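Appendix B.2, paired examples.
Example (i):
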Amino acid sequence: MTPRFDLIGIVTDDLAASLAFYRRLGLDIPDGAEREPHVEATLPGGLRMAWDPVETIRSFNPDWALPPRGQSRVGLAFLCDGPAEVDKLHAELTQAGYDSEMAPFDAPWGMRYAVLLDPDGNGVDLFARLDQQD
């Protein structure tokens, strides 16, 4: 199956400020989400938006550095049929010459995850729930 565009992800160094901003734009973000390591909101039409604090990213990738303001901190995420499809697509795209930012790994939030870079250097995530069957 073809991966499905499912999520827009933002990495933030101030989760509370970011959530307050998007709440003011009308997104339904639960109260208290500021204390979570990962926050999601479903947008009209079913697309999801997610926020990850820098500390969450560094907890599984200590060498990761937050891009400077003005450079991309937003990633597009594609839902795959299962963990094996994440690995397969990552391999196919890197063999085709696209750069990998993060090889496939089992993320602490229960997802198989990988990050590629599109030709302009934007992060493109591939993911599937670990409990999802291929």
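Example (ii):
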Amino acid sequence: MSLARRCSRTACARPAIATLTYVYADKTAVLGPLATYAEPHAYDLCETHSERLSAPRGWEVLRLAIDSGEPEPSEDDLLALANAVREAARPIQEPPPPPVRETGREVARKGHLRVLTSD
């Protein structure tokens, strides 16, 4: 089973590179980079279908820049990752819980429950 998202067009098995969404109020179709997760009202398109996209008459197609390359981790990403690992490795020192003080005397027991008298 492949984790890569596929084109939403029927019978197309190519990998998706762009996401298409509609802004009905503005009569605009927006084609941009592949969204981070699949949404029910968005369509993932392959390179071929994203290039051949057309909109209904009276609608505008807004094409955002699509970066086809894999993003490289930046120095900030690596520092954030290193800081997260250091934080997770730090031992947790919690104060010991205070001792439980009982003020009554046990007069009966049923399972894990106890009946205490108040003196």
